[in-house]
Amino acid sequence: MSSLTDQTASELLERMRSGDVSAEQIAAACLDRIARHDPAVGAFLRVGGDEALAAAADVDRRRRGGQAVGLLGGLPVAVKDLICVRGQVTTCGSRMLANFVPPYDATVVERLRAADGVLLGKTNLDEFGMGGSTENSAFHPTRNPWDLERIPGGSSGGAAACVAARMAPLSLGTDTGGSIRQPSALCGVVGLKPTYGRVSRFGLVAFASSLDQIGPLARTAEDAALLLEAIAGHDPRDSTSAPAPVPPYSQTVRQPLSGLRLGRVREHYGEGLDEQLAAATEQALDVYRSLGAQIRDVSLPHSRYAIATYYIIAPCEASSNLARYDGAHYGHRTDERQMRADLRQEQRRLEAAGDTAGVDQLDTPLVRLYRQSRAEGFGAEVKRRIMLGTYALSAGYYDAYYLKALKTRRLIRGDYDQAFAEVDLIVGPCTPTAAFPLGAKLNDPLAMYLGDLYTVGTNLAGLAGISIPCGATREGWPIGLHLQAPAFEEDRLLRAAYMFQQVTAWHQRRPDLP
Amino acid sequence: MNASPYEIVVGLEVHVQLKTRSKLFCRCSTQFGAPPNTQTCPVCIGMPGALPVMNQEAIRLAIKTALALNCEIPAFTKWDRKNYYYPDLPKGYQISQYDLPLSQHGFLEIQDPKGRFPARRVRIIRAHLEEDAGKSMHDEAAGQADSRIDLNRAGTPLLEIVSHPDLRSPLEAKAYLTELKLLLGYLQVSDCNMQEGSLRVDANINLHLATPDGPVATPIVEVKNMNSFRAVERALAYEAPRQYQVWLETGQRLGDVPKQTRGWDDQAQLTRAQRHKEESSDYRYFPDPDLVPVRITAQQVDALRRELGELPAQLRQRLEATYGLDPYDSDVLVNQGRELVDYFIAVADASGDGKRASNWVQQEVLRYLNEQSATIDRYPVGPAALAELLAAVAQGLVDTSRGREVLQYMVERGVGAAAAMQHLGIQAVDSSELVRLCQELLAANPRIVADVRSGKQQAIGALVGQARKRSPNANPAEIKRICLELILGTE
Fold first, then answer.
1. pTM of the predicted model as reported, rounded to 2 decimal places
2. C-alpha to C-alpha distance for A387 and A319, rounded to whole angstroms
3. What's the CA dihedral at A67, A71, A77, A82 to 10 degrees?
4. How far apart are CA A354 and CA A349, in angstroms?
5. Which residue in the set B87, B277, B286 is minimally distant from A393, CB to CB?
6. Chain A touched by B382 (CB under 8 Å)
7. B295 and B412 belong to one structural domain
8. Is B1 among the domain residues?
9. What ipTM did this prediction achieve?
10. Which of A203, A319, A322 lies closest to B49 in CB terms?
11. According to the per-residue pLDDT averaged within each range, which of A51-60, B187-196, B376-385 is highest?
């Protein structure tokens, strides 16, 4: 008998509707699987067992009583720990916010509750979403369910791993430069980054505000469509959310696209792309050809500047967004008594040495509080990006870095506009390599950044992208196919993904967990 | 008067709290005086994950003010982040406007009816919107470095109005602030209460000197912590000779040293240099990615322009042109605010005598309001009733001093002019009766008659007093005239 956790969200929803299985049973099965396998995988930071069961039982009660239930009808959903849930610790994977309890729900969480999604727990991530391996979590790394010695990708590593490991049928991640799509590719699941403005950012702890977007992770296009439909739409609390109407993705996803024109990006087949991944991508194109799609070569000439542009803009915004974690209002505060004692001692030492300039330059207690709290609270990667951003925004550098990056960003967006005049979707590899071993790139940030090569352009241009399983390496590690669509064409992405999954079985492969 | 060896050059930065019901980027109340940290929400305390949403009313009030300051309103404006660390700034940045402000290139005209400085058009560089920070309250007790933060004010809309350095004396600076405050009052966009912090002033001041080597400008100093217009005037009056002394001692010119910030100490009546560390900052401005740029249409601007109404400068001109007031009188009336001017206009129109209405409003009505610390809406005598009294005075039914008694009675009893006059027994005194009264007085006072004959006309005053005792309604000028005629005319 196929266990509940092996089934997709859509299958489970059907079974709940027919009365065959209850939401409480499904939640219990997920919790059971988490208890059994998460100690090895480390996808979750916190699991809300009792609350999940109670919420599921409530949906069951209403369904039995003939009352209407929401779109998600009692399906469990895991939530990345960068998204605020009222009354629950939301750490952002940072020591800085180890005790932060938001007094409000993010809009997406409100919508999940309104759609009768059952919150299963909070998933692990790279600190504040900064990283591509989930090794930058202040708490523990997450491991790839396909090989526990490998990284799951990041920053939504927990979100992707929990879906791949069948601990949750659905999860919410966030994507600033590829943070949903890259871990989805490396873990062999479906991950969609919606158009900027499609999903409210209210309650998403900001990394880079002009790039951040919340999106669904699932095992199939249908399931991703369901979750996206539940969370998308305008929010008056987020000025950057779009007032555009939300199509009923879960209903349209099964409609095939005819005359589909796919653009194959010339620049994506250059240096750095693993040949196994290149081959898998080509095979995926063949699949689309067999479905009647036309493949055309397109060019994104400025895509070679995408990484550089991204690693200016995102750190600039981050340096400002993370300024509030100063120990005065939010975040870890250093041991003040000790700090003052140290400061007095330093002063006495300088005075004894007759170093008046040194005394004059000594930190005030307030400045020392800031410095020390931030030095203790943030991890290395977050500090690196705060420094990058602070530098790039400084007087004398702003024009050369930030302003230049904004101009390049417009050129990148222009490339996409031109390409989309000729094709419906852009298709290519999602990552240059499959999952790499833990620790492999920890001391080589540049190599880590290059892993975002194919995904950052989508964020810079504010468009939509999806990664779907399209193959496996010889060792069996998943490979993701990256599809990108014009703004607000998530429907097209999901339908294309569904078509692919109808004729392939990559999404049905399961990792063997001990 | 000795010519000053220097010219004072002042530019002012004024922060005005706009009178919106809610804050600039959230729905919290802006009411002053609530218990600390009770008017806050996740947005204005910068809680992780919270996002700002712009208050349209703040934009409206800001544009109205900018229009009244003759500013241009560009079609496109945006929000920027000004990054700095301070405990009363919970996000670690202030949402403000940097390179594309909401308005720019305006002016405000000032003049002095007493003629102490020439009429001046003070150019406005820009007026932009930004959010206020919270308030730090420092416990200065020795050893106890305890600070408390109240975030009720955090996120309140401020309009920062920056003038060109067009002001040439402390008095002009004060006049500019007075006129600005009056304008904001007419527009009803701000309470302008310096004690409550709804109007704050920073001044930039330096000196221009003529030296044998040509003109020289001294380094600019920014003066802060001034809590009243008077303090601004005094701080600048203190600062100018101080800077001159520094020039004599150091010869430092503009550009030789970084801009200094000094705080005004109102107790000691002097400015003090603030710590160097507190002033040097790189704010790392960049566009706020949480907010969308604001587009302002010509239609919106036109609609707001129509809401402006008559502003103080126009109103002064109208009072002078229509009611024959001199600039001093129109200034006094207009400076009292629109409501008082409306009262004056109603009295003047009904009585048909602008000058007389102006005198009575300034002398009688304003005196009462000052004594009672009241505003015109609390004045018990309506404009029609006052106009009726003024008509009686104009017709000579009652003289000015008796008229004051009538008004006093009207104020106390809340009755009209006719009723008050009747109650006080005021009626026109028949002139033959008045002649008889004077004849009797002259007969009874031969001494006075003799004095007057010998040239001491002022002796007649005693007769006027006696006449008024016997006939209170008698017009003193009439009595004087008749008595003089009777004495001197019979010679």
1. 0.91
2. 7
3. -120
4. 9
5. B286
6. no
7. no
8. no
9. 0.95
10. A203
11. A51-60
